[in-house]
Amino acid sequence: MATYKPVVVQAFPKLGERITKDTAYWRGYKTPVQIKEFGAINKIDFSPVPPYNYAVTASSRIHIYGRYSQEPIKTFSRFKDAAYCATYRDDGNLLVAGSEEGSIHLFDVSGRAPLRQFDGHAKPVHVVGFLSDKYRVFSGGDDYSSNLWDIASATEIASYSEHTDYVRCGCASKVNADVFITGSYDHTVKLFDARTKSSVMTIEHGQPVESVLLFPSGGLLVSAGGRYVKVWDVLKGGQLLVSLKNHHKTVTCLCLNSSGQRLLSGSLDRHVKIYSTTSYKVVHSFNYATSILSLALSPEDETIVVGMTNGVLSVKHKKPEERKEQSQKKRQPAYRTYVKGRTYMPKQEDFCVSKPVKRVLRKYDKLLKSFQSSKALDAVLEPPIRLYTPEVTVAVMQELHRRGTLRSALAGRDEKQINLLLTFVARRVIEPRFTPVLVTVADMITDIYQPVVGQSAIVDRQFLRLQEAIGKEIDYQEELLEVLGMMDTLFATFTEKRATYLEENKSNGLTETIETNTNN
Amino acid sequence: TFFCFHSDIYFFNICLEDCLSSLWKHILHVSDAVDASSEQIFLWSDTFQLVSVKLTKAAGQDLEAKELSVVLDGVDASPKCIAFGREGEYVASVKEVNLQVFFFKRKQLNRFSVSTVKTKSGNNQFACIACHPTEDCIATGHADGKIRLWRNFYHKKDYTFSTLHWHHDTVMDLAFSMEGTSLLSGGVESVLVLWHNESNCQKDFLPRLGSAIEYISMSSDGTLCCTLHTDNRITIINSNLRFSKSIQGLIKSRDVKTGLVVDPRTKALVLNGEPGHLQFYCLQSDQQLFSLDIVQRQYIHQAGLNQADLVKVAFSAQGKWLATVEEREEVTDPELQLKLWLYDEETQSFKLNTRINMPHEDHITDMCFREMDELEDDSLILVTAGRDCVFKVWVMVEDTDPEGSVSWSCDFVGSYHNYQATNCCFSEDGSLLAVSFEETVTVWDSITWDLKCTFCHPPGKIRNICFGRLTCSKYLIGATDYGFLCCWNLLSCALEWSAHLNVLVLQPDPLSEHIAAVSWLSKESSLFVFKPNEPRPIYIQRNLCKEKIQLAAFVPRDEPETIVSEKYHWLRRSQLFFLTDTQVRNSEVGLTTLLHTPAHVLPSASFLCPIFINSLLISKENKSAEEVADEVEMESEKTEDDSDEERGVTEMEQEDTSAMELLGEMTRKLSKSQEKELRKIRKMDYSWISAF
């Protein structure tokens, strides 16, 4: 004897992104904290040492934020005009920043006044950074030159004037203390060696270069400019490895995650895309409210900080491990209350009485089980089901139709209920997953309530809405068919025609062989 | 207690209509109504008379009929329409709108009739009758679902009746409890209703018994009741309406749409079972191994409802994957679902893996897996052919989610000149796919999905196709609508041979080169077994049976038999099973049963389900009916294949009489009588041993 089988609610595959390990990982951040800065944020840099403070360069100030602070814990504001590219040294003690007036300032993180000032650039300096030996600073300016400075003496060691446009980005190699690269609006990325007088490698990016990045191994170079992110193999003499075109506006910033497995790119199109560095496929993406100028990821990926053109700094912290919190929050009944008596082994003389497992049926299932069609339909037209799980409503309607009782369930309703039903149908009938069932329902409703049309303004309006919705959908489908037809003609002209030869072989009345040869 | 000893009893029923059409007579044995010295038997014949026969016990087992007298005239054919009242004082019978009661002592006949009212739900004709065991009360069931309780029927005028109404369709059978305090009724709804104290408001239900209730019977001590269902099953129910046990063999499905498929894992025959279920039926033990719920929806037992049913089944070569297609006929467009099931080793059952809604726009006509070594999973593909003029290729894809599970998705859609795709089949090595599009067979490369070549045999559409196997793998066999069996050579792309034969069923043996073709010519089915490489069949069996054979399947033997005869060599590795259809009055497809079912023992059968046990008896045997009722050992008809080998048949049966001492002679008569309404023919190898 079978038990009652509940109504099968069709599950439809969710459109859009699938849940992968990456999505799970990158979704594990809290809602962003928004901090308002004075101007567009052009650089965010994390201190390499705990507690991983970060320097945000915006307008004429450099703010240092702590891990969870909403207010800056320190501010460097000794700039006459805009400051650029505040960058930490590897030990986290020094900070260097360029400025609009062309001077480069070196700060002690604990001090306030600049320790050193390097003058030499004639135009604003948009990019500065430390070489990995910690004693030298490289810089690139709008005067097309890339310079190298000695910290101790505050003097210029070398100056390379090879770029033919503004130098706007750069980075130093972590493995070789003499190597740094700069990217310029002249579409090139140049690799300099402090020991030589000129650049050692020039890479043609193709668009004004907005950001460059070297992999920790120093072997791979990533450049971003225009809508492209390009990865180059430095060791092979600057060979293009892969070109990524996933943004639809200029890519402004690049960053690697702590493990080096994922590459992040931010763009003016308000998106941050995350690529796998093995397959170079987009594994996840975030979107933000406005165009993104700068992006940084703290060590251990604990925080994602994004700076935007309108001066808003968005800080996302990783959610803490959930299990720990739960155990602290709520004291659950002891484990033994759950297993009480479960492990009891019946003795020989014990008489076992099995307790039937109680199956919980939904309300509509209970009503369907007792063949109360109308009530079952009422149950699934309740607001929570109708609004949030319309598939349940439609599944029950389908089940009623299958039982041949849909018509009687729909009939005999008052104005309010018809209104409700028609609202639901008019809203959902155009959803492809519901269309087959709801068309039948709409048909029946029109059939049943045809005699009362004109008696109620509300119902009439709903009928008109239904008509409108269906009319719109028909127009839409026609348009789609037109597009399909156009595409077919396009494809037909593209694909090579297959020559078909028919050979008919009638040796006797019974035999006929048709052979079709396909030529490529 | 009655059933406890016999938990392994086998029951089976035969459709009563079928029995009647073969002029078998039904006997109702009234053991209560007779005194010790003599037995009285009532029997009614096809002349619709109830006849009383006085029997006296003679020496030995023979009973002698002494006296014959007509008791009632115009009796309905169904035994449900006759009942004996309180200790055999009266007999009541119903037919159409008339109820007649005959009192034995007074020799008085009372007739009553109900007015012929036709309502929406049907008419109020009588459908069944039951008499109260202790009181003078008759319960009658009607076609409109009402139950009437008649009293005071001693008087022709002053009779009274009350009505009980719950059923919405015909009341199929009624039974009173032993004390008469409650009444059981059942019908198409497959709900057993227990009416307390003959009142309309006090009733209990036992719902969802699986299929329509045909008969209800109470045990003598009143502790158990059993219901017999239309799908060839008996359910035993405790007196407190608790389901206790179900006895089932091959479930009779309304329509075997799936065909006969052999499960590669269990070697069980797989076909439609309960509505929406797939039954795995073990031929060796005549048992249902298990029933797999495919549709997973509540089945509403109501006539005229259009509910999803299983139409196609396919197993992958090792039985790891199962593909099923279910459809629900709609006025506008059919509702289709393709489901793929993965065998779960842990639960030893199939688990739903993928469900595809509307895999085709129209009905799916055929489906097959590529039968290759399943060690490499990516070689496994499924092809479905549909009436929407395309065939689709489904492949497994790995999901991107962390569990790394697989699901199926469509890989290729092929079509040919907008013809409906009717059949599909893979060659043995899986490199070629043949799809028939109406009149044309197309052959496709299964790797690149290029059309390789086409064959056709003009005046008929292709009905069946199959590839040859082993040494004959270069041949493609096709059967067309207008009676041609064609064999094409795939190497030369030419017709090798063709034969004029109206082939209904084409079934290749999976273990050898042999192909069985069943033809339908001049109202009889014939079997031809051939190898594709030569046009001359190696075995011909004319007049296999009088009905159309719908389906056939080769079932591999556990171990090859040693068959000496050259003629039957093709049966060495597998056995061939057929399913015939019988056009019973309302074109209902009669499912068959059984050959060589194990012996079954039915003690006190007259109590249990007198009707169907007795329906098995031939009228000539009525003398021994008493003994039969005490202990019946039945061997079902062992049907011989060769009607010209009568001698062989009897010999064969004598070889196998271990379980048929009592009714051996009867069985022989059955087989000779060639009454083949319902049965499956099993080609027993020793049935032709006698040929030597």
What do these coordinates show?
- The complex is a heterodimer of chains A (520) and B (692).
- Chain A has 520 residues and is of the alpha+beta class.
- A 4-stranded antiparallel sheet of chain A has the order 1-28-27-26, with no helix packed on it. In chain A, strands 2-3-4-5 form a 4-stranded antiparallel sheet, with no helix packed on it. Chain A has a 4-stranded antiparallel sheet with strand order 6-7-8-9, with no helix packed on it.
- In chain A, a hairpin with a 2-residue loop joins strand 19 (220-225) and strand 20.
- Chain A is elongated, with a radius of gyration of 34 Å.
- Chain A starts with 20 loop residues before the first helix and ends with a strand.
- Chain B is mainly beta.
- In chain B, the strands form 14 sheets. Chain B has a 4-stranded antiparallel sheet with strand order 1-2-3-4.
- The model of chain B is unreliable at 1-41, 56-66 and 582-692 (pLDDT under 50).
- The interface between A and B is medium-sized, with 29 and 41 residues.
Short description, anyone?
The complex is a heterodimer of chains A (520) and B (692). Chain A is α+β, with helices and mostly antiparallel strands and 520 residues long.
Mean pLDDT across the residues of chain B is 70
The separation of the N and C termini of chain A measures 61 Å
Number of helices of chain B: 6
Instruction: Tell me the Rg of chain A in angstroms.
Output: 34 Å
Secondary-structure content class of chain A: alpha+beta
Shape of chain B: elongated
Q: How many beta-strand runs of chain B?
A: 50
